[in-house]
Write a structure and sequence with these properties.
By secondary structure, the chain is α/β, with parallel strands linked by helices. The protein has 12 helices and 13 strands.
């Protein structure tokens, strides 16, 4: 079984290896995406809903969250404006590869993703668990009690949690839905018994649905960073410089606390 320490170390390793290995296109002299950002004064960002990182406020439909504010700060540091391009978790890495956008909102570092995109230095870290009705959670001790035949667990297709759920849950029925709101609706309506996601995201959903509770323990853990084009060392250096300053200044911890999380979710 993959432990938290082992996975985080592996994630950091694949990120470092990818960042140190120039992509053939860039090695051959292809301009950095940062050159276009400087020229057009525009930072294109791919995103998909992930509470509390980036989501729409139901009151005014405006995008907000930890990722949203960090990216706005980043664009300001780059003397650029932001173009938010909504996508899906299953296709965000492909959007980077295709040049649809320069970076994505924060996403978990996983070995499969690190094969097709590079990552910035980690910004946050988190574990994964389940959200389910309080009365049912009270009868269980850990996520393992939910891995039973006939138990339906919803997860966002292509998300980090999808990878972990597929690995750890062998008996439960996994229901893969395209978006987080679809997962929450399936849970609240009783179509599924639990929703799998990161603990920070589950805390946000729980505040909106107090009849739900988070299952104790964690069935996986990972670090979270901005996805970047492979081999674009110039853009990576600028983004990493911003990330280091955001962590050093306390901005990351400030935003985590603003959106209902404690500072322990900040990466070292």
């Amino acid at each position: 079984m993959t432990t938290r320490r082992t996975f985080l170390t592996h994630a950091a390793l694949v990120t470092a290896m990818a960042a140190a290995r120039p992509h053939p296109l860039y090695a051959a002299g292809r301009p950095s995406a940062f050159d276009r950002i400087e020229k057009d004064k525009l930072l294109r960002v791919g995103w998909a809903v992930w509470h509390p990182y980036v989501f729409r406020d139901p009151k005014n439909n405006q995008v907000e969250g930890v990722s949203y504010e960090l990216v706005q700060d980043m664009a300001k540091a780059f003397n650029a404006k932001v173009e938010w391009i909504e996508d899906s978790w299953g296709t965000l890495p492909a959007g980077i590869q295709a040049g649809k956008f320069e970076i994505t909102n924060l996403m978990a570092i996983t070995p499969p993703r690190a094969q097709v995109v590079d990552f910035s230095e980690p910004v946050t870290k988190h574990g994964l668990s389940l959200l389910a009705p309080k009365d049912e959670v009270a009868k269980t001790k850990s996520w393992e009690d939910w891995d039973k035949p006939g138990v339906k667990i919803a997860v966002t297709l292509g998300a980090n949690s999808d990878m972990f759920v597929t690995e750890k849950f062998k008996k439960a029925d996994i229901i893969r839905l395209k978006t987080v709101p679809e997962n929450v609706l399936a849970l609240v309506s009783g179509r599924v018994r639990a929703h799998a996601s990161t603990i920070d995201a589950l805390k946000t959903i729980q505040r909106e649905h107090p009849q739900m509770a988070i299952v104790p323990g964690s069935f996986g853990a990972s670090e979270v960073a901005f996805a970047l084009p492979q081999g674009d060392t110039t853009l990576a250096a600028r983004v990493n410089g911003f990330v280091r300053e955001a962590k050093k200044s306390g901005r990351v911890k400030q935003l985590l606390e603003k959106y209902g999380l404690d500072a322990s979710f900040a990466a070292d």
